[in-house]
Amino acid sequence: MNVVEDTPVSRRLRSVKHIVIVCSGKGGVGKSSVSTQLALSLRASSPTARVGILDVDLTGPSIPRMLGLDGHPVHQSSDGWVPVYADGSAARLACMSVGFLLKKKEDSVVWRGPKKNAMIRQFLSDVRWGELDYLVIDTPPGTSDEHLSLVEHMAPVHARISAVLVTTPQAVALLDAMKCLSFTRATSIPVLGLVENMSGYVCPCCGEVSNVFSTGGGEEMARREGLTFLGSLPVDTELVTLLDAAEAESPEELAALPEGGSRRSFGLLERYERTPTAPLFKKIADRILERLASVQQAPSTS
Amino acid sequence: MSSVKRKILVLSGKGGVGKSTFTAQLGWAFAADENVQTGIMDVDICGPSIPTILGIASEQVHASSSGWSPVYVQDNLGVMSVGFMLPSAKDAIMWRGPKKNGLISQFLKDVDWGDLDYLVVDTPPGTSDEHLSIVQYLKESGIDGAVVITTPQEVALQDVRREIDFCNKVGIRVLGLVENMSGFVCPNCKTESQIFKPSTGGGRRLAQDMGVEFLGAVPLDPRIGKSADYGVSFLDEYPESPASIAYLDIIDKIKQQLGDV
């Protein structure tokens, strides 16, 4: 057995069973949407499942908006940053994003690589996740500083990392998805499979399916590269609207909240489960769980 | 860079909103006048799409005594992208910031652009190394302005607000905002629906709020993506489509903003 290096990151992530990186190469293909849905589905996969979602898209964080947590502050405790819980006092869906650290939502984060690297290290070592069954990590487009930093800092827990690739069907996106796949191969991260997003759009008026961004390209790529095809998801305007308009609480409401908590019952999950995409994604999540079981043995909680 | 008259950045904050597609249309539209020399520089190092969209993905860059020679789509449209320098399109470019900055500096210094009327720079999503470097390296010779692209939904607008904030911080003039993928007309029943719903007022409202020019909205047309995949000009293929008309109108407004009409 390898000697496991002891670092602040490895100590912090000791209590995390599985780490799933969601990546795509190309931007705007639905990484954050897939990450959010994966986190919601994993949380729903068992009555006790505890899930974390870490947003390392530092210059374009979308996760707070999608989980309806825009404007939440992050609190510091003696044992590190307290994540924001999307499900309030149930505390089974913990979220951390640079979005929580900005004063105003239109503030830009203009950082070069070294600063991004430091932030990611801090996210990995200083967030008080507690016991987690799954930590989903949403990444920015590309294969650069954020990705290299993630892999580098998580080297001691490398055996628990796996990746889900997201693409849209058109050639331009597949090209970048291939680069992303090369990245996972170069860094020896097992790929759980590939999701084809925005595959077709159903006209709300007549039901005609239009392939707005072509179709089938992801499935074809999975076959060619020997990847598990996890499924395709059509463009679902109900889902877009749900994740886009998830309302944040007003500042007064926020002030009245207990530390890191959210007062609402977990309405987002209920509303999500009523979207046409939810049953399709459930199958994808089930396949991801199967693949996780075959790729990684759950480590003993020592 | 002193031999380049106009330098325009195409920015967006969010990925996948159509920066590269717009850059290509802009390049093609400028170069439609055979007396206008146009260059396109792709500084998306990790995900270069420009070579595919312009139909020159298999080309290689040639080095000459006066530096690297751009790849020419037509006589008056030269292109530079890291995509031309890779042994295989499948390879990931796993570079941290400093290496990306080095390449961008080379693109500006060592590429033999010749005399250009327009240089259009396509950028990756975000506000990080590539953006800081291009601004820094071009500061001396001056950037004429930035065209910011968005899609209608709030998740994209959030990132675009950050991008405009970035432009203000570093002192780049915003020529205007383009809303892409704005509405979709079903080819069967001809009814328009909003795929990416503007839940907070879309690009128009954002432009108003942030005091930038709204250049126009381009409807989502599946043939745009298809043209990009095949590397043909959508404007030439479907000149009568509503999207083409919108594109051309936007390009006219950009020229007006630049004072080039």
TrEMBL record, chain A:
Entry's Gene Ontology cellular component terms: cytosol
Binding site for ATP: 25-32
Main location: cytoplasm
SUPFAM superfamilies cross-referenced by the UniProt entry: P-loop containing nucleoside triphosphate hydrolases (SSF52540)
Lipoprotein keyword on record: no
Subcellular location: Cytoplasm
Positions with a binding annotation for [4Fe-4S] cluster: 203, 206
One GO term of the biological process aspect: iron-sulfur cluster assembly
Gene3D superfamilies found in the cross-reference section: P-loop containing nucleotide triphosphate hydrolases
Key words of the record: 4Fe-4S, ATP-binding, Cytoplasm, Iron, Iron-sulfur, Metal-binding, Nucleotide-binding
InterPro entries, alphabetized: Mrp-like_CS, Mrp/NBP35_ATP-bd, NUBP2/Cfd1_eukaryotes, P-loop_NTPase, YlxH/NBP35
Statement: the UniProt record of this protein carries the keyword 4Fe-4S: yes
A molecular-function term among this protein's GO annotations: 4 iron, 4 sulfur cluster binding
Function: Component of the cytosolic iron-sulfur (Fe/S) protein assembly (CIA) machinery. Required for maturation of extramitochondrial Fe-S proteins. The NBP35-CFD1 heterotetramer forms a Fe-S scaffold complex, mediating the de novo assembly of an Fe-S cluster and its transfer to target apoproteins.
Family as reported in the entry's similarity comment: Belongs to the Mrp/NBP35 ATP-binding proteins family. NUBP2/CFD1 subfamily.
Entries under HAMAP family matching the protein: Mrp_NBP35, NUBP2
Protein name: Cytosolic Fe-S cluster assembly factor CFD1
UniProtKB/TrEMBL annotation, chain B:
Keyword Magnesium set for record: no
Keyword vocabulary terms for this entry: 4Fe-4S, ATP-binding, Cytoplasm, Iron, Iron-sulfur, Metal-binding, Nucleotide-binding
Segments passing through the bilayer: none
First-listed, main subcellular location of the protein, grouped into a coarse class: cytoplasm
One Pfam assignment: ParA
Recorded GO CC terms: cytosol; cytosolic [4Fe-4S] assembly scaffold complex; nucleus
Protein name: Cytosolic Fe-S cluster assembly factor NBP35
InterPro entries per UniProt: Mrp-like_CS, Mrp/NBP35_ATP-bd, P-loop_NTPase, YlxH/NBP35
Compartments where located: Cytoplasm; Nucleus
Annotated GO MF terms: 4 iron, 4 sulfur cluster binding; ATP binding; ATP-dependent FeS chaperone activity; metal ion binding
Lineage, uppermost ranks: Eukaryota, Fungi, Dikarya, Basidiomycota, Agaricomycotina
